[in-house]
Each structure stands twice: as structure tokens, then as C-alpha cells.
Specification:
alpha/beta, Purple Acid Phosphatase, chain A, domain 2, six-stranded mixed beta sheet, five-stranded mixed beta sheet, 4 helices, 11 strands, about 30% strand
Length: about 170
């Protein structure tokens, strides 16, 4: 399965549209959002995707969790899971947190229960391995901190991820 991974969209609608366009072109079958969606108007844009979207809350989402949950409930393909996601896809156990709680992220990593751990928050894209675990941070989709908007794509069959730039077309 090809999974699109995004984080830190921070209400940048033009770049969210471009990320959705990229995910659609790549025919991802699932999108995981690692938090900092920011507003319901940003979340609802993801309903344009022809696949499921599963997200967690980031530190910039906590003031609007009720509104974000209500918005997700109106979209057939979007599910917000609180601060943590634990799913199994193609026999890979995937854990996802935003990453603003460093101790929770460390505990998740030290638990050695997940094949893939996804986080955001730092706005710095990276894919690295430690033991048998793959750590993925898709970077910032908003491009506001470092000016380089990115997402990631992970292929569960190949067990390989790639950081991709988001470019305006």
C-alpha cells in the first residue's frame, strides 16, 4: 500500500491543495496527518481525497479539537484519533503522534512495538531507521518555517519512504 504522510499544514490552503493533488497523482491509498491541521476549513479540504485520511492533533490544534472532530464527522473519509494513532497495515504496526510531547515520542520509540513511527512538529523532514523501526517526519507542508514545503510517501510493500517537495503547478 502506498501511504501519503503530511504534517504541519498550519492552515495554508494553497499548499494543502497542492499536497492533495500530489497524493492523488501518486494514487496513495491512505493519508496520515501527523497534526497541526489548525482549523476546520483546512481539514475539510482533505475530503477531496479519494482515500481515507487518519489524523492526530498537534499542539496548534488543541484549541479547536471539538470543532475539528465535528468537521471530521461530516466527512466520510476523515478520522481524527486524538493524540495517538496505532494501526496495522500490511502487517506493519504504525504509530503516529504529533511530536510536541518529547517524552511520549521517546516512550513510543523505546517501546519497540512499532515498525514505523510517524511524527511531525519539528518542521524538518527525515526518514531514518533505528534497529527494525523506521522513523518518518514528513516535514512542514505549510512551508512557513523553512520555506521548503514537503510531504512523505511510504510504500508498505517495499518498506521504503521518500520525502517529496510540494510545488505549485
Amino acid at each position: 500500500m502506498k501511504i501519503g504522510i503530511i504534517s504541519d499544514t498550519h492552515d495554508n490552503h494553497p499548499l494543502i491543495h497542492e499536497a492533495i493533488r500530489l497524493f492523488s497523482l501518486l494514487e496513495v491509498e491512505l493519508v496520515l496527518h501527523a497534526g497541526d491541521i489548525t482549523t476546520p476549513s483546512s481539514l475539510i479540504l482533505f475530503s477531496d481525497l479519494p482515500c481515507r485520511v487518519i489524523g492526530v492533533f498537534g499542539n496548534c490544534d488543541y484549541r479547536q479539537t471539538t470543532l475539528l472532530k465535528k468537521t471530521a464527522d461530516t466527512c466520510a473519509n476523515i478520522s481524527l484519533q486524538g493524540s495517538f494513532v496505532d494501526i496495522t497495515i500490511d502487517e506493519l504496526r504504525i504509530g503516529m503522534v504529533h511530536g510536541d510531547d518529547t517524552l511520549a515520542l521517546i516512550a513510543l520509540a523505546e517501546g519497540a512495538l512499532h515498525d514505523v513511527i510517524i511524527s511531525g512538529h519539528t518542521h524538518r523532514p527525515s526518514i531514518r531507521g533505528s534497529g527494525s523501526t523506521i522513523f518518518i517526519n514528513p516535514g512542514e507542508a505549510c512551508g512557513e518555517r523553512y520555506g521548503e514545503p514537503t510531504v512523505a510517501v511510504f510504500d508498505t510493500e517495499a518498506r521504503r519512504g521518500e520525502i517529496l517537495p510540494i510545488r505549485y503547478v
